[in-house]
């Protein structure tokens, strides 16, 4: 870890309350920022091009424009403009919080921006981005909210529970979400500086956090949680002296051992019935499927697991991404050196590709065999995905506890977001293909055989599936036992995937 250039911001509850009031009054919200920047500047900023945002805010007296310039774009503003944008806090107050430097023209010392969903506006503090500083990131850089953060937040199931763990909290973003549905939150990080940012973010948003320093499971030894979330430092990194270790992306292990270790250790940190939601990367070797590799992490555990692989990259694409992430440009010696380090590290372990995905784990609440589902689903999903994840976990758990006859005894119905597609040759009396297509969730598409289609078509929540199977057997002149044997596994699949409930 390198020594950080600036300490994280910090303040008393009264100082944070004044700042919160100022940010609310500005109003420094996601919507207002979008309005002030406009779609073009905002999209350019996402592409790490700050000039359109600079032009959109230059000369403006709007407090939101001032706050964007100082805390997002890293541009100096006059002390008078900052005082007008944050009147309760005042320039001295903002300096005392460690948010800006000294002088008559002040510059932001950290990134502070609104973040939220429909019901909330939060403010998240982190280090200034590379776009704002124009410098490569330091190895102790504390990331703001990024694509991985929002993916995890989207996928996290949110039942109301007592104890939650946010492992590798960074700027504290996952804990903000947890505050809405958990009573006690433990947030851990290896980086003391990240914990300082999380403390500031939590205080500013009036969220209580039990912050603990330490690596992976160390700070929570012997403790169980109802919900564990982690966007861990999953980047597979060569362990060589010439490859820098960035706290935010590298847990210090070889290959994909960080995520593997989290999975292996999860069972002893989940309360019975507890759920964990993680992001991960995994190594794919020739002759080994990704399912075999990730299933290996679960061996010997009693955890239920639903793993969705969302993407896959070859080793060169992966190496390019992470060589560039350190601030090196392709074509430079620094870039080529890192690129080669990654390629030789992968070659040494026979790795050909890297998979990216989300893992949902559950410690069964009862004594039974765990269920396991590993599927590659790269298409876009609903946002948020959490309700779908919770419904699928509950459906799969119910199915694991019930026999085929019990499944058939239920009056199932087709979910409201599911439509049926029939595709056939023009003029043909019968469709060649019958499919169910889910509108929400993972947008699953399930092809049906004619017997299952007949049963599903009659499932309206009134008759039990067993009654419908009997009727279909009579109508099609197929033995009822045969219909049952064919339909039940498919019915289970549709129920598990949320197409029927
Ligand atoms: C990708 S960031 C995630 C930050 C935040 N939770 C989010 O969702 O945006 C990973 C975090 O894990 C922390 N970290 C790195 N190595 C760690 C370790 N061995 N144990 C715990 N945390 C670690 C980093 O400091 C960083 O804050």
Task: Provide the helix percentage.
Answer: 25-40%
Shape: globular
The tally of helices reads 19
Mean pLDDT: 95
C-alpha-based Rg, rounded? 26 Å
Ligands bound to this protein structure: S-adenosylmethionine
- Total strands: the figure is 15
Class computed from helices, strands and strand pairing: alpha/beta
Number of domains: 3
Provide the β-strand percentage band.
Answer: 15-25%
For the largest beta sheet, what order do the strands appear in spatially? Answer: 7-6-5-8-9-11-10-12
The major sheet is characterized as: 8 strands, mixed
How far apart, in Å, are the first and last alpha carbons?
51 Å
Unreliable segments (pLDDT under 50, ≥5 consecutive)? none
Please tag this protein with its features:
15 strands, 501 residues, binds S-adenosylmethionine, three-stranded antiparallel beta sheet, Arc Repressor Mutant, subunit A, alpha/beta
């Amino acid at each position: 870890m390198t020594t950080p250039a600036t300490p994280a911001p910090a303040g008393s509850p009264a100082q944070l309350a004044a700042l919160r009031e100022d940010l609310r009054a500005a109003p420094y919200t996601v919507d207002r920022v979008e309005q002030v920047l406009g779609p073009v500047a905002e999209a350019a900023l996402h592409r790490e091009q700050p000039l359109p945002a600079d032009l959109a805010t230059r000369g403006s007296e709007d407090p939101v424009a001032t706050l964007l310039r100082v805390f997002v774009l890293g541009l100096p503003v006059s002390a008078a403009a900052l005082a007008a944008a944050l009147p309760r806090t005042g320039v001295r107050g903002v300096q005392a919080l460690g948010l800006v430097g000294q002088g008559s023209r002040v510059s932001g010392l950290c990134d502070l921006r609104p973040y939220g969903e429909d019901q909330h506006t939060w403010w998240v503090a982190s280090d200034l981005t590379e776009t704002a500083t124009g410098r490569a990131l330091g190895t102790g850089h504390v990331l703001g909210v990024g694509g991985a953060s929002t993916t995890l937040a989207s996928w996290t199931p949110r039942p109301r529970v007592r104890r939650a763990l946010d492992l590798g909290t960074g700027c504290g973003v996952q804990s903000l979400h947890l505050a809405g549905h958990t009573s006690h939150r433990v947030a851990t990080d290896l980086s003391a500086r990240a914990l300082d940012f999380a403390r500031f973010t939590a205080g500013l948003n009036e969220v209580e956090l039990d912050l603990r320093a330490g690596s992976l499971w160390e700070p929570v030894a012997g403790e169980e949680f109802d919900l564990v979330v982690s966007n861990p430092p999953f980047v597979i990194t060569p362990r060589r002296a010439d490859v820098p270790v960035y706290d935010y992306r590298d847990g210090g292990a070889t290959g994909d051992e960080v995520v593997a270790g989290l999975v292996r250790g999860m069972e002893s940190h989940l309360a019975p019935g507890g759920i964990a939601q993680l992001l991960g990367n995994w190594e794919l070797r020739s002759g080994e499927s990704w399912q075999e590799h990730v299933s290996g992490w679960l061996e010997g555990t009693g955890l239920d697991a639903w793993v969705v692989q969302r993407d896959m990259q070859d080793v060169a694409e992966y190496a390019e991404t992470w060589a560039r992430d350190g601030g090196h440009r392709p074509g430079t010696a620094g870039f080529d050196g890192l690129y080669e380090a990654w390629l030789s590290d992968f070659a040494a372990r026979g790795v050909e590709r890297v998979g990216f995905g989300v893992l949902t784990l559950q410690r069964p609440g009862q004594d039974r065999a765990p269920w396991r589902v590993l599927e590659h689903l790269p298409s876009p999903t609903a946002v948020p995905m959490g309700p779908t994840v919770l419904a699928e976990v509950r459906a799969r758990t119910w199915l694991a506890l019930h026999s085929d006859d019990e499944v058939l005894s239920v009056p199932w119905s087709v979910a409201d977001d599911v439509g049926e597609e029939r595709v056939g040759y023009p003029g043909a009396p019968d469709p060649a293909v019958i499919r169910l297509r889910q509108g929400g969730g993972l947008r699953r598409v399930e092809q049906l055989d004619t017997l299952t289609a007949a049963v599903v078509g009659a499932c309206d929540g009134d008759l039990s599936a067993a009654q419908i199977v009997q009727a279909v057997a009579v109508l099609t002149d197929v033995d009822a036992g045969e219909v049952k044997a064919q339909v039940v596994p498919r019915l289970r699949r549709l129920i598990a995937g949320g197409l029927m409930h």
